[in-house]
Amino acid sequence: MGSSLQPLTSVDTSALFSPLHDELIHLLSGLRHTDWALPTVAGSWRVRDVVAHLIDGQMRRLSIQRDGVGPPAPRNPVEDYESLVAHLNDLNDEWVQAMRRVSERQLLTLLERVGSEYADFMASLDPDGIALFPVAWAGEAESKNWMDVGRDYTELWHHQAQIRQAVGAQVLITREFFFPVLDLGIRGVHRSWSDFEYEPDAVLLVEVEGEAGGEWSLLREGRRWVIYRGTHAKPTTSVSMSADTAWRLLFNALDPSGAEEEIEYSGERELFLRFLGVRSVMV
Description:
This protein is of the alpha+beta class. The protein has ten helices and six strands; from the N terminus they run βαααααααββββααβα.
């Protein structure tokens, strides 16, 4: 089999926010009171907490970027990736705790209104403009809007997936909704592998099975790793997984021991084990 490699290009998710939002509102509108209290794979958060977190992120984006209201100063200095993660975790926890006094009906009303405004705003941004926030989990110090918007899209998709998994609904693993999540999420390699020294010309081939999946090849070129779409003819290591396993791995819902059981690999084990640490969220 020959190589079929193509450089990564921009991913336009702006038109997907509105239909993805509609899918979530439809799902939440049919939940029972007890469903809102079901646990999710998002740590200690239950379904209602994930919904509250989505409202927070959308209101924060609209307030800062659309309405020009700056965020409050962090309690502690944000000087590096770890302190940024700690700051974001504090913000998230503060909001979720406060929203536990709000009824499910009010959460749904808020999400329906705010999510619609948020979808319209994200679709209005110039994809090639410079983003207000760089995508840190992809190792970027500066991002284009399409990548920043795409980051938010992966947030909406994977939090909805957490809710769907918790309530026993079908996760939206379709080509339309899920392939962009994978194609953006694989870029988490840029940060997690930036300091990973390995032999020149090494290749990791990643295959996600199914109609919504795809193939990506990570090549060691000089002193850096470069990601391509497509398959390499002679990978050093190949990994293969289902779409369900892929989203749980990338979005921190699958521990390393579980990942080893669900992901098949061949070739050098060190590359396989390193891949298990790739995340497309701030952790």
